Amino acid sequence: MGTQAGEVMDRRTFFKAVLGAGSVAVAGLLGIPGVATILAPVLRRPRGAVWAPVGRLDAFPAGQVRPTVIEVPRDDWDESLRRRAVYVSRLDPHEVVVFSRSCTDLSCPVMWDAGSGWFLCPCHGGIFSSDGQPQKGPPSRPLYRYATRVRAGTLEVDLRSVPPML
User: Is 3 inside a domain boundary?
Assistant: First the structure.
């Protein structure tokens, strides 16, 4: 009255099966929040432009680059998240460019040096020309430019026209 080898599971095989099933369950539980975190911005990202006022157009003289701060419509407790520093470059009376303050290498804050006419990144010595083009250092892409419009004499930028950065 013997049993066949395939009919009875020994203790070692049973524990291997339980351990394997438990590992798969834990990996699944830990992986779900990670996948949700990665996909959430894509899935919930609202479509369309979000226009924010920068200031009166006549406050930015032609031929100059001026730093300014724009208010971002957010309900965060931290006030610093509701402000974004930008540079407004009025090339001529009819052309205005608004640059992001973030370097295109590692998002370090660039500074405008009026004496040299360059944007300087302190992190890796990146240098950008007054039109935002990289000149030296690691950055290989030009500074990000916001989409702009002028309404009733007020310069506005589309906050979603550049990658999200702080």
Answer: no
Distances (CA, A) of 118 to 59, 74, 135: 21, 32, 9
Domain co-membership, 41 together with 55 = no
State how far Cα 108 lies from the chain centre: 12
How far apart, in whole angstroms, are the C-alpha atoms of residue 137 and residue 107?
Answer: 14
One domain for residues 37 and 73: no
| Cα 135 to Cα 4: distance, rounded to the nearest angstrom | 78
> Could you tell me if residue 111 is inside a domain?
yes
Pair (66, 109) in one structural domain: yes
Separation CA 23–CA 20 (nearest Å): 5
- pTM of the shown model: 0.69
Q: Which two tokens stand for residue 45?
A: 């990202």
**Secondary structure class of 96 (helix, strand, coil):** strand
* Tens-place pLDDT, residues 95-128: 899 999 999 988 899 999 999 999 999 998 999 9
Residue 26 contacts by C-beta under 8 Å, 6 or more apart in sequence? Answer: none
- Residue 91 tokens read as 């090339």
Six token digits for residue 21: 């099933």
